[in-house]
Design goal:
By secondary structure, the chain is mainly β. The protein is built from six helices and 18 strands. A twelve-stranded mixed sheet has the order 7-8-9-10-11-1-2-3-4-5-6-12, covered by helices on one side. A six-stranded antiparallel sheet has the order 13-14-18-17-16-15. The protein is globular and about 60 Å long.
Length: about 375
């Protein structure tokens, strides 16, 4: 299992946020001197990146804790700490269990205080289950190649490995890369790789990635906002077992009185060979400031201060305007803002800002709102 496999970022903290937070493009990384502690041999940033790229595991299991303190208002339809709903992951503390035995055997469980939600891939069977709703969905999906990363639906929570993949994809001339000794994660000694934006306009202060000293698998990712001492977002293992789980871990039988819905195939691009877990990026622009193939997406700026401007589908925009749908309910709690670019609703967090204009444009970036307004002006 390669931990450096490229996956399009689409849902780390909030949909479309990671694409801005960590979209920068790749280039060479300078070697910065650092010392190792905790009995691990010295490794430079460049050496650690090679270690991560070459890491292979036939299987693993463990417990993951995610903490999100993004400074967001309470949003209708979005759960909080202790919830077993996948939408609750944008705030509070949550516990998950992960089992992995190859790309065709993956199980992820979100454990709530009064329920549980599971996503299980076992060969060609893909199950999603919610104890709260007493419902399950089953689909038949194609088998993955042996060297492919395990695919899960776009609604699945992110793992430390995927968060690290997204962060590592941000390495470019706009990023300072260094190491900071070692840390203890899940009772195991790990190196710490630190990514910092060189530009001052980003809301992100740094991203710290813990890399297991023995397996070289990322075991924790922390994202710090400027001017804070505690991470605004953190996902990491509290227990980590680098051995292959038993086959029984991937056997899923719906509990009694569960409503089972049979799907016709993979939703969107999930579980398709050659596609990213979070969806295809075939329309994504690779050049800052250029529009995508369908003219719906534009990236203004570069690196950590880049801003994504997207055209919201007409149906969603109309739903917001008529006051129907979950989007409209969310907009009601967000402040209205205006400028020469028009009017809209602003979502401001500690790591990012997002703006939905009344004319159907969504603007997102790891920057202050003023940078969003400037991007619209361009």
């Amino acid at each position: 299992m390669s931990t450096f496999t490229r996956r399009p970022a689409a849902r780390w903290l909030v949909p479309a946020v990671v694409a801005v937070l960590l979209a920068a493009g790749g280039s060479a990384v300078g070697v910065l001197a650092a010392s190792a502690r905790g009995g691990l041999p010295h490794r430079s940033p460049s050496q650690l990146l090679v270690d991560v790229q070459k890491a292979r595991l036939d299987g693993l299991s463990g417990t993951i804790v995610q903490n999100a303190s993004l400074g967001l208002p309470s949003l209708p339809g979005v759960g909080g700490a202790g919830s077993s709903d996948m939408t609750s992951l944008v705030s509070g503390s949550h516990t998950l269990r992960l089992w992995y035995a190859g790309p065709n055997k993956v199980r992820l469980a979100l454990l709530g205080s009064l329920g549980e939600s599971d996503i299980v891939r076992n060969g060609t069977d893909l199950w999603t289950w919610s104890s709260k709703d007493k419902s399950a969905t089953h689909r038949q999906v194609p088998l993955m190649k042996a060297d492919a990363p395990g695919r899960l639906p776009a609604t699945a929570p992110v793992t430390p490995q995927e968060a690290a993949d997204a962060a590592l994809a941000a390495i470019s001339p706009t990023t300072k890369v260094s190491t900071d000794g070692t840390a203890s994660v899940a009772g195991r000694t790990a190196y710490e790789l630190v990514l910092q934006p060189r530009a001052t306009g980003s809301l992100v202060e740094s991203v710290r990635i813990a890399i297991d000293g023995r397996t070289h698998v990322p075991t924790r990712v922390q994202v710090f906002a400027r001017g804070t001492q505690d991470p605004a977002f953190e996902v990491g293992f509290t227990s980590f077992d680098p051995s292959t789980p038993a086959a029984s871990a991937f056997a899923f039988n719906p509990p009694p009185r569960t409503k089972v819905t049979e799907g016709s195939g993979p939703a969107s691009h999930e579980a398709l060979p050659g596609s990213g877990r979070r969806g295809s990026d075939k329309h994504r622009s690779d050049k800052p400031g250029s529009a995508s193939a369908d003219q719906r997406l534009q990236v203004v700026g570069t690196g950590w201060t880049s801003v994504v401007v997207a055209k919201v589908p007409t149906g969603d925009s109309q739903a917001a305007g008529t006051g129907s749908g979950q989007l409209a309910r969310m907009l009601k709690v967000l402040p209205r803002v205006s400028g020469t670019w028009g009017t809209g609703h602003l979502l401001k967090g500690t790591l990012f800002s997002a703006l939905l204009t009344d004319d159907g444009r969504l603007v997102v970036g790891a920057v202050a709102p003023e940078a969003l307004y400037a991007a619209l002006g361009r």
